[in-house]
Amino acid sequence: MAAKTGFAKYIIVITTVTAAIMELLDTTIVNVALNQMAGSLGSTIEDVAWVITSYAIANVIIIPMTGFLGEYFGRKTYYLTSMVLFGVASYFCGASDGLWELVFWRFIQGIGGGALLSTSQAILFDAFDPKDRGIASGLFGMGIVLGPTLGPALGGYILETYNWSQIFYVNIPICALATVLTLIYIDRKEGEGERKQEIKIDYIGILLLIIGIGALQFVLEKGESEDWFESRMIVTVSLMAAVGIIGFVWHELHTEHPVVNLGIFKYRIFAFSTMFNLVSGLGLFTSAFVYPVLVQRVNGFTPLEAGISLVAPTMAAVILFPIIGKRMGAGASPIPFMIAGICFFVFFGFYSGTATPDMGKWDFFPMQICRTIGISLLQLPLINQAVAGLKPKEYPAGIALSNMIRQLGGAFGIALANNFATNRAAQHRSDLMANMSTDNPLFNERVANATKNMIASTGDTFNAAAMAYKQLEAAVARQAYYLAYLDTFRLISIFFICLLPFVFLLRTKKLSPEEAAAMAKAAAESH
Fold first, then answer.
1. pLDDT (tens digit, 0 to 9) for every residue of the chain, 527 residues total?
2. Which of 154, 253, 302, 410 makes a 20 to 30 Å CA pair with 22?
3. Which residues fall within 8 angstroms of residue 507, CB to CB, at 6 or more apart?
4. Alpha-helical regions (H) of 49-132
5. b/e burial code for range 251-261 (CB count within 10 A of at least 16 → b)
6. Distance from chain centroid for Cα 171
7. Distance, CA of 13 to CA of 5 (rounded, Å)
């Protein structure tokens, strides 16, 4: 497919980047609406969490199969079908009046959305000349960062202005417009979708992938709320995940027509880049998860305030990604960018670990700008490294697997953050409670003052002391979680510190601008 020029190119950029942002935005936009959904649907928060879990499970199942499905049905047909499916499922999500109806349509939405990520990337590459495809990578990487970060802000605004169903309805006009633009401006590749008779479908591989990855995602999403391996259900699903993944790997390496080409892990650069993608996903999604929880639970932000405070620093990615993309397209080594990105993220984690409960929205700006710069410097080289050293026909599998690993890294990171913060909060609470003793004169003085304040505000002298103790207990719990979230930010930094020594394993020979353009061209033509 020939590169586009002028107006058509910009339309394709807007269409594909918007589709990628929309897909990733829907992974986080629901997070701020769980309380309202629970009340509206008459369910518990734990049950409503399935709205998030079902979408994530569908995503990680479909993403590694996008290369095969795009080849079988034709990339444009598959992209259009996924877009329409995403829009239709969004409508039924908003129209759902029962929890499990909503969970079902979120799963269907995830099936449609998972295809938008890798396929959008391929279409965007095709719209650019070889010498400009570094800019295309930059624009797509910008979408990867903006999506999860803008989700809480948009979700918070919709909740304060409308109701939770509008979170899903907002996708419909975007999907409709993107579908029309795709029909008009995105061309089919020569021979696209005409090889169905030659392609053999790996039904066993698809089944094992669904069982293995779906079960693993379930364990990561639900493990904390089910008390991990104390739950018989988690143990059973973990065994299913192990059997499914091991069986899938063995089958894909021994079948003649695998649905996912795992053979590309034989390339050292790709194998190590997946480790970086895992930690990068952990940092991106976990930091976007922990920060809103901290500022709402401790600093008293509303969902909208928490989301908006992320928007301004995230705009730095809009400036950085095209610049970094242009440098990468000119053949610049990814290693310095990655080292700088990791260092920025390490600094972000430890800097965030110094936050205080009285900080306002703009006080968090320097911390969040460090996060954005770190992700920007790290993410784009990883997109390029996903295909470095692979043969052109192996690029679709490389991109799809990289996207899946990043999503799994996010799921693992959020599960880890939940578990770690809960355990650390319990420890901090125990330490703080040690000071709440009648032998401590400072504690007795605080109880007396709190009791007087309760009497003054309520006039209830009989229950004032009990209410004072409850007030102090709530303050201890708030302080314990505050300290636990700071520990979680530091833990993210430790993951990136452990990653730093492995950067040099991704070293490749420096590419000339012509070689970089040729590799980008081969990558685009392989989709």
1. 545 555 677 787 778 777 877 877 777 777 777 777 888 888 776 677 788 778 877 887 888 887 778 778 888 888 889 989 999 999 999 998 888 899 899 999 989 887 787 677 777 766 766 666 666 666 676 676 677 767 777 887 888 888 888 889 988 888 888 888 888 877 776 666 566 667 777 889 889 988 988 888 788 777 777 777 888 889 999 999 999 999 999 998 888 888 778 888 888 888 888 888 888 888 877 887 788 778 878 888 877 787 778 777 877 777 787 788 777 767 778 888 889 999 999 999 999 999 998 898 888 889 989 988 888 888 778 877 777 767 767 776 777 788 778 878 887 787 788 778 888 888 888 887 776 666 667 666 666 666 666 666 666 666 666 666 677 777 778 888 899 999 999 999 999 999 888 887 776 655 555 555 544 444 443 33
2. 302
3. 333, 335
4. 50-62, 66-73, 75-95, 99-126
5. bbeeeeebbbb
6. 18
7. 11
**How many C-beta atoms surround the C-beta of residue 125 within 10 A?**
25
Asked if 159 and 351 count as a contact pair (C-beta separation under 8 A), the reply is: no
Q: Nearest CA to 327 among 196, 189, 138? A: 138
CA 242 to chain centre: 23
Quote the crossing angle between the two packed helices 75-95 and 171-185, to the nearest 10°.
Answer: 160
Q: Are 52 and 140 in contact (CB under 8 A)?
A: no
Q: Residue with structure tokens 């935005």?
A: 25
Q: How far apart are the first and last CA of the chain?
A: 10
Tokens linked to 143: 């979408």
Helices (H), 223-353: 232-254, 268-297, 303-314, 316-329, 334-352
Tokens representing residue 1 in the block:
């497919």
Amino acid identity, position 84: V
Q: How far apart are CA 225 and CA 247, in angstroms?
A: 28
Q: What angle do CA 354, 409, 274 make, to 5 degrees?
A: 120
Question: What would the two tokens of residue 226 be?
Answer: 């089910």
Query: Which pair of structure tokens corresponds to residue 298?
Result: 């401790």
Which of 89, 68, 91 shows the shortest CA–CA distance to 78? 68
Buried b (16+ CB within 10 A) or exposed e, 459-492: eeeeebeebbeeeeeeebeebbbbbbbbbbbebb
Alpha-carbon distances of 339 from 74, 190, 283, 409, 467, rounded to whole Å = 39, 40, 15, 19, 53
C-alpha–C-alpha distance, residues 6 and 430, integer Å? 64
Instruction: Give me the amino acid identity at 185.
Output: Y
Six token digits for residue 407: 């999503």
Rounded-to-integer distance, Cα 50 and Cα 287, Å: 21
Residue 444 CB contacts under 8 Å (≥ 6 apart), including other chains: 438
Q: Which two tokens stand for residue 301?
A: 């932000």
Q: Which two tokens stand for residue 426?
A: 């319990």
- Rg value, the chain, Cα: 24
Query: Could you identify the residue written with the tokens 């040099």?
Result: 504
